[in-house]
Amino acid sequence: MTEAEWTELRRRARTVRENSLRMVNAAQLGHPGGDMSAADILTVLFFRVLHVYPQNPRMPGRDRFILSKGHCSAALYATLAEAGFFPREMLKDFMKPLSMLNGHPDRNKVPGVEANTGPLGHGLPVGVGNAIAAKMDGATWRTFVLTGDGELQEGSNWEAAMAGSQFHLDNLTVIVDRNRLQLGDATEQTMGLEPLADRWRSFGWAVAECNGHDLRALESTLQGVPFEAGKPNCIIAHTHKGRGVSFMEDRVEWHHRVLSDAELTLALRELNRSDL
C-alpha cells in the first residue's frame, strides 16, 4: 500500500470511531469502550482483508465475518456503512424503535451481518459451523470471528476451539480483542486468561499476537492466515478500551457508560486532532 492509502485507512478508522460515538450519544445506549477498542480491527478486516461485496451482501463466495462481541454493534454498523453496505444516514436510527440497527446485530435485518450475536460465547461456535460447511463444500471462502477477551470466560468458546482443531479448520480465524477489561473489572481479576496464547496453542490452534491499533501490523498478521496448514488461526490483538479518547481509555466504566453531549464534543475534538 502507498502512504496515501494508509492515510485513507487511518481516516476510515477514525470515522468509524467518530460515528460510533455519535450513535451511542444519540441513543443514550451502547458499549462505547469496546467499540473503540475494536475499530481498527474492523477497519482493516473490511477494507483490506475480507472478500465481501457491499452491493451483493449474500454473494455465495464471500468471506464470513461474525462479531461475537455483539454488544459492540455500533462499531460494526459504522464500519458497514463506511464500506457501503447501507447509507450512512441510517446510522442516526441506531437503537430507535423499529430500526434495523438493533443493539445487537441481526442478520435478517442488516446487510453484511452474518450471524445474530449478543449472548456471549455464541459467535465462535457459529464460526466453526461456517468453516466446516466451507470444507464440506470444497469452497475457498473463509470465516473470521471477533471475540472479546472477557467473553472467553464462556465455556462454549473452548468447546468450539476443540472442534476447530479436531476438524483442521485452517479456514477459520478468531481475533481476540484483548483490551483486558470487561463489564465490571479487569479480566485477570474476574477470571484470569493468561497465558492466553499458550491456552489457544494447547487446543491445537496456530497463534499470532499483534498491536490491535497498529493498522500495518494488523494487516500483515491477518493477511498471513492460515499460519499453519491444518490448524485454525488465533490472533490476539492487544488493544485499549476507549482507544483514542483520553478520558475513556483503559477505564472500565466505559464498557457501558454513554457520552453526554459535552463529552461527545470533547471526544470528537480529540479524535480530530489525533494521529490515529
Write a structural description:
The chain starts with a helix and ends with a helix. A five-stranded parallel sheet has the order 1-2-3-5-4, sandwiched between helices. The protein has nine helices and five strands, in the order ααβααβαβααβαβα. The protein has helices spanning 3-27, 32-49, 73-83, 123-137, 155-166, 187-190, 196-202, 215-223, 261-273; strands at residues 64-67, 143-148, 172-178, 206-211, 233-238. The protein has one domain: 3-Layer(aba) Sandwich (Rossmann fold). The longest helix has 25 residues, at 3-27. 41% of the residues lie in helices and 11% in strands.
Per-chain topology:
Layout: H1 3-27, H2 32-49, E1 64-67, H3 73-83, H4 123-137, E2 143-148, H5 155-166, E3 172-178, H6 187-190, H7 196-202, E4 206-211, H8 215-223, E5 233-238, H9 261-273
Parallel strand pairs: 1-2, 2-3, 3-5, 4-5
Helix pairs in contact: 1-2, 1-3, 1-9, 2-3, 2-8, 4-5
List keywords for this structure.
single chain, 276 residues, alpha/beta, Rossmann fold, five-stranded parallel beta sheet, 5 strands
Which ranges are low-confidence, i.e. pLDDT below 50, for 5 or more consecutive residues?
A: none
Mean pLDDT, all residues: 97
CATH topology: Rossmann fold
Number of domains: 1
What's a concise summary of this model?
The chain has 276 residues and is an alpha/beta fold. The protein is built from 9 helices and 5 strands; from the N terminus they run H-H-E-H-H-E-H-E-H-H-E-H-E-H.
